[in-house]
Amino acid sequence: MAFKSLKIGKHIIDIPIVQGGMGVGISWDKLAGNVSKEGGLGVISSVGTGYYEDKAYVQRLVAERPLEVHNFYSKDALFKIFENARNVCGDKPLACNVLYAINDYGRVVTDACEAGANIIITGAGLPTNMPEFTADYPDVALVPIVSSAKALKIICKRWEKRYGRLPDAVILEGPKSGGHQGFTYEQCALDENQLENLVKPVVEEAALWGGMPVIAAGGIWDKADIDEMLALGASGVQMGTRFIGTHECDAHSNFKDVLLGAKEEDIILMGSPVGYPARGVRTNLTGLVERREGPAIKCISNCVAPCHRGVEAKEVGFCIADRLSDAYEGNLELGLFFSGTNGYRITEIISVKELMKKLTEGE
Q1: Which domains does the chain have, with CATH numbers?
Q2: Which tens digits make up the pLDDT trace of 85-112?
């Protein structure tokens, strides 16, 4: 059975597959542009754009890292990423993922709108003031990420009261996703929080607010998983990790090799300076952190508000900006390699076109 298209605000996604926003530099122009070109929704990550094209758009570096927020979240680099992605996908819809926990959240959302994003996606916190920063861009669709019906209700109530609008769609992310989770360590394992048990209550909550599309995310791997989510009432799915296994993914070849070499037990939950547990691959870095022997924490880029200028980084044992950017640059010793629970299932690198064919037609 063919998939139905997905409507997000004024934008039509031919194939209801949203490519997850992955930073630093895992989903930039090449990956996002090609996913949109092939009929899905490509999502550009706004995290760490200062590292784009070997830090060509950074005004000042310290220890070869972008200094402060305006350089780490470089507006000029984000514009160039969108320009290059547009060269690939033309006028097909393109989204930008902007984490709510970052410093300069409002500025980066506005930058993304100016750069040409059709859709803004935000997770890592409840984006209760998200519409405030897109008031001058009425055609830009807004999509929060939630982990429960309660979270969606809170967002809808506040958006309607403050801004007279509602989300154009909502991404429901279960605890099998890569990167930061919307649950505590303990909650990630509870049956009630598994994606298949969350879809129905979130779809029911969405129906109370006009029936916005619900996009299911976290642990989705193949067409059978997509079919299951659509049967449960979702209008589409978001997939991140599987897109890392594509030639067009902007990740370093070493990053792809880490997943190609990973076993199921290598993918673990870990602490994070962002304040949420995060899922990634057990590597040399995670061993250093567990032994409290990790690299020095200097907070050069000042990336996320919950870290309090390195205070939380010192608590958990690593700077997330530095370690994610090390992964982007292929540093196997100190890189932090995020992955969903299925990352170990990547066994080959294929094209985005071939992957989309597998996801729509089956393996």
Answers
A1: 6-251+348-361 (3.20.20.70), 256-328 (no CATH)
A2: 999 999 999 999 999 999 999 999 999 9
